Amino acid sequence: MAGLPEHKRLLLGYPVNMVTPPEAFFAWRRELALVGLDQFAFNNVGDPYEHSHIEFNSHAFERELITRFAALYRFSADDTWGFLSNSGTDSNMHGLYMGRKLLTGRAGVPPKIYFTAEAHYSIQILADLLGLERVEVGTEVDGRMSADSLGLSLAEHADHPALVVATVGTTFKGAVDSVDEIQAALIGREAYLHVDAALFGGYLPHTAFADELAQRAGGASRYDSIAVSCHKFFGFPSPAGIYICTRAAFDEFRAHFSQVHNPEYLLQVPGTITCSRDAVKPAEFWFFSSREAFARQRADAKQILSDASYLYGAMKTRFPELEPIRANALSNTVYFKKPSDEVVSTYTLATMKLRRDGAQVPYAHVVVMPHATRAVLDQFLSDLGRAG
Q1: Where in 156-224 does DSSP place strands (E)?
Q2: Quick one: which of 53, 8, 17, 101 has its CA closest to 293?
Q3: CA atoms within 13 Å, Cβ hemisphere of 303
Q4: Rounded to an integer, what distance in angstroms lies between the CA atom of residue 201 and that of residue 38?
Q5: Are 327 and 176 in contact (CB under 8 A)?
Q6: Do 215 and 367 touch, CB atoms closer than 8 A?
Q7: What is this enzyme's EC (predicted)?
Q8: Under a CB-based contact definition with an 8 Å cutoff, are residues 246 and 215 in contact?
């Protein structure tokens, strides 16, 4: 473990904010400990919006932080339900499970799940776990879902409802699936749209691109549920996830879910797949939903997009042979042909083979997070030059 605190600033290949939270966060942790949270057994089992006769929970904090983030994503205040999950994958699982339940109940046949090869690998795992037949949708050059390909795929499977996963910030390329284009393709279809915005969902609401994640626009619903990771952009020091859906979708789901299990033991239908739930994380993550926290997040969002532009420009000028690409102005990711193994190791770069001119070519990427300051990026650029 020695040396890790010093080395953390050089982690550039994965979407993790390595900035240590402010001292006020640790003071908040101490306040929570004084009332017993994380000192003896607290449990957030059950629906945080329903009365729980197990009083040792943090449901009040959980409801408050969901309310605050739902407002950021422009959910209607009277049409919101959610909870803090164990991780981004857990949030995705709830979205896909809810979509499968609703669509099967409406149509009498299970849905097929639609997503691209650029989506996070958790979607592949969850499709298998939930027994969903997969339909891989093609992509545009930048990596976003192709509306034309989606339309063709939907037409091929007209007898089944559609469970569609839109990825706002694809894992390797930082592409953004267009929610509006997807919705246009779904007109007339029985469908459920889940948005996986694990990283981008943290910072986009604080930028000029906030509309991309608005749940409602012009009085209409744009998607049914969203998943955002707490441990990526925010810098929360433990894996956790935000899950928010419309209250209408949840109420419909709850009617089906109540038939799956006997809710008598809890005196309520819990609404979550997980039974016992961590009570510490919602209370701790509440700290990241305050007005002051949102102000810090706005500053961090501005920094990472500015520095992503800086890195992209510098790499195009100094290392054109690496063919750097930034998918769009919303993205904090720059990907390029794989540099030396030394650079990959020093900066913990993620690598993948991408198809280029009929061949599989190894690429790497840098995800510009708040700890990746200009000084760190300049060091990276310098090391690229020496390695070349």
Answers
A1: 162-167, 191-196, 216-217, 220-221
A2: 17
A3: 17
A4: 28
A5: yes
A6: no
A7: 4.1.1.22
A8: yes
Cβ neighbours, 10 Å, residue 373:
15
Give the residue-averaged pLDDT of 351-363. Answer: 91
Domains and their CATH numbers in the chain: 23-289 (3.40.640.10), 292-387 (3.90.1150.10)
45-54 long-range CB contacts below 8 Å, 24 or more apart? 45/266, 45/270, 45/275, 45/276, 45/277, 46/266, 46/268, 46/270, 46/271, 46/272, 47/83, 47/268, 47/269, 47/270, 47/271, 47/272, 48/83, 48/282, 49/81, 50/268, 51/268, 52/266, 52/268, 53/267
Beta-bridge partner residues of 176: 168
**What would the two tokens of residue 271 be?**
């609404």
Instruction: Please calculate the CA angle 270-274-280 and round it to the nearest 5 degrees.
Output: 95
**Residue 234 near residue 288 (C-beta atoms within 8 A):** yes
Q: Which residues contact 194 (CB under 8 A, 6 or more apart)?
A: 92, 95, 96, 99, 163, 164, 165, 166, 223, 224, 225, 226, 227
CA 11 to chain centre: 20
Beta bridge partners of 81: 245
How far apart CA 164 and CA 178 sit, in angstroms, is 12
Closest by alpha carbon to 141, among 362, 356, 368, 312? Answer: 356
% of the chain residues with pLDDT over 90: 86
What DSSP designation does 158 have? T
> How many whole angstroms separate alpha carbon 338 and alpha carbon 58?
46
The per-residue pLDDT for range 237-282, each reduced to its tens digit, is: 999 999 999 999 999 999 999 999 888 878 888 889 998 999 999 9
Cα dihedral value 359, 360, 361, 363, nearest 10: 150
Q: What is the mean pLDDT of residues 185-211?
A: 97
The per-residue b/e assignment along 258-275, b for 16 or more CB within 10 angstroms, e otherwise, is: eeeeebeebebbbbbeee
Beta-strand runs (E) in the chain:
81-85, 112-116, 133-137, 162-167, 191-196, 216-217, 220-221, 225-229, 241-245, 333-337, 350-356, 359-367
Question: CA angle, 304 as apex, 299 and 305 as ends, to 5°?
Answer: 100
